[in-house]
Structure formats: structure tokens, C-alpha cells
Description:
Layout: H1 3-9, E1 14-17, E2 71-73, H2 83-92, E3 94-98, E4 105-108, E5 113-114, E6 122-133, E7 141-144, E8 164-173, E9 192-195, E10 198-202, E11 205-207, E12 223-226, E13 234-237, E14 240-242, E15 250-251, E16 257-260, E17 264-267, E18 270-272, E19 275-276, E20 297-301, E21 305-309, E22 312-314, E23 325-329, E24 335-339, E25 342-344, E26 357-359, E27 364-368, E28 371-372
Parallel strand pairs: 1-27, 2-3, 3-6, 4-6, 5-7, 6-8, 7-9, 8-10, 8-11, 9-12, 10-13, 11-14, 12-16, 13-17, 14-18, 15-19, 16-20, 17-21, 18-22, 20-23, 21-24, 22-25, 23-26, 24-27, 25-28
Amino acid sequence: MSQGRLLSALSMLVLLLACGGGKGSSASGSGGTIPTYPPTDPLSGPAAGNSGGKVPVPAEGLAADVSRPDHVVGTGTPESCTAEAFIAAVALGGKITFNGGTKPFTITLGRPAKVFNDKPDLVIDGGGLVTLSGGGTTRILYMNTCDPNQVWTTSHCDNQEHPQLTVQNLTFIDGDASNESNAGEGGGGGAIFASGGRLKIINCRFFNNACAGLGPDVGGGAIRAFQQYQGLPVYVVHSTFGGADGYGNRGANGGALSSIGVSWSIYNSLFSHNRALGNGGNPAAPGTPGGGSGGAIYNDGNTMTLALYGSLLEQNQVNAFGSAIFFVSNNGTGRVHLEDSVFRKNIGGSWYARPGLSMDAGSKLEIVNSTLE
């Protein structure tokens, strides 16, 4: 979308300041609980989740029950939890857990683990002990309902309910999709690329994941998402993207998250030290490679909602727009909902509707008990 048109429309920004009202008016429905999660290894990086986030999580955003797994990777030692065993389990679908002992360990992949569309919905639970690494050379997880290599299962692969991918109680490090296609659905998502079905992330950490660093149409250093079933949101709950200097994720746009036409419901999560490395925006300004928007989150498309609850976004960085968040609804029907959340000390960029937030003038901005500075 033309940046010039967005800039000229900035003065028409609609701001709704909501007061009180509880969670009933929130983007993800009423009710919910504040769950507990397996602890993450403090020696391996920042903890999962925003420690100050206390917003109840709706039922749709709770962890899956894996007490009766379909597949267990490993036979009791870290060495038995091999990359090949993990990749094979992902290909079969179902609920996956790990038996690698009682101490944290890392599985380093040499190629992505790929979801097959004709297999059961996939849940991967690391119990707070498992780190999945791309070794700085490969994306970690790939799901695409429209990829014939992963089996077409419907005539409407762009809007199908299954498979659904849930990752919980895991750490993702050093995933790298820099060598994937720089445009369209092949690019982005250093740790996870998910197109179609549903995606959910619970109590996870994402450190030092990357995708291509230049270009207007690539992004998601950690996660890239498309085509979620019936426009239902991706849930991100009690998770950390970066969290400290030296742990951030990076890509041309959306240092942590990038999507087109996707809604997000983000609860009690931390985004910090992520970077959008491109320059020149989208479309790319003359003489530039393009990109550089959305230090933490890049959201583009039409009718979609970005909702953050109990989340902290700080010290994310851009070269173009939206040091914390870039949100553009091309037809002006989008919505950004910020509740019990904080933006602070995000760095760089221009064209701001509020500190850290670049968004189109037609979309609705709702701010409830949140600080943007």
C-alpha cells in the first residue's frame, strides 16, 4: 500500500479510549483464567512470558492436554532425542512429547520438520526442557496447506480447518529462513512458517531466529503466518521473543512476527530487542531494498485484528516504520486492541500514530489501561 496515501490520511486516525468494562469487550471474548506453565531454564536465556502480564486467558488460548501422547521422542537421554526422530514424529502428526531426562537439552535440526496435511492435528510439547535449534542454517517448522508436497486435502486449501499446529513449553533458537524465497508465501519465518489451518503458541521462547534481511515482502524473524481458517486468530500466550540484548529475532519486516491477512490474540507476552532490518518500506522507496517496518510485529492485509493483552514491547528497532508494531489494513477495516500492555523505549522509524505504533488511518485503535511511550 502506498506510504504516501497513509501519511496523508494520518490526521484522520480513529482512537477509541475505552474505560472499565472488563474483558467482555475484548477481541477474544470474555471469561478466562490465568494458567500456570512449566518453568523455562534460566541458564539458557530470558524466561517465557511477560512477568507483569496478568490477563486471564480464554479457553481457546490454553495449552493442549498431552498426558496421552501419540509419539514420544527419546528413550530417556538427551542423545536419544535425535533430530531425525523429531522430524519423523512431526510428519506423523498427533501429540508429541519428549523423554530426554530431567535436565534441559537441545535438538539441532539440519532441515525443517514439516507438517503433512493428511495427518492428525499436531501438538508439540517440550515440557519446558526442550530447545529446538535450526543451527543458524535452517527453518525449524514448516506447515502449508497449499503445498502439494505436503498433500492437498481440500479444494479450498487457503481456508481449511486442519491441520492445526500447537507448540507449547518449547524454546526455538537459531532458526534461519534467509535462503527461502524472499517473496510470497515461501519467505520468512525463521523458526515457524505456518500457512493455512490454525497456529497456536503457548509458553514458548524465540531467540536469535532470522529470515531474509532485505525486501518489502518478506518478514517474520521468528514466525510468519498466512491464511488462518475463517480468519480466526493465532494465539500467542505467555511467550517471549528476544527478551534481552543478544537474544532478539530479526528480518526485513516484523523482527518477531509477520503476517498478511492474519489476526492475532497475544496474551502476557514479551517482545524486546527484535529488529526489522530492511529499509525503504513497502512498496520500496526508490533506491532502497524495501522493508524495515515492524520491529516486533508486522501486520498487513484487510479485515484483521491485532489484540495484545498484558504484554510488554520494548527496545525493538526499525529503519522505516513502527518500531514496536506496523499495522496496515488496506481497506481500512482493521482493528488494533491494546489492553493492560506497555510500549516503551522502542527505537527508530517515523510515521507514528502513537509511540511505537504505525497504523493506517481507517482502522480502529482501542487503548485500554495501556501505556505507549
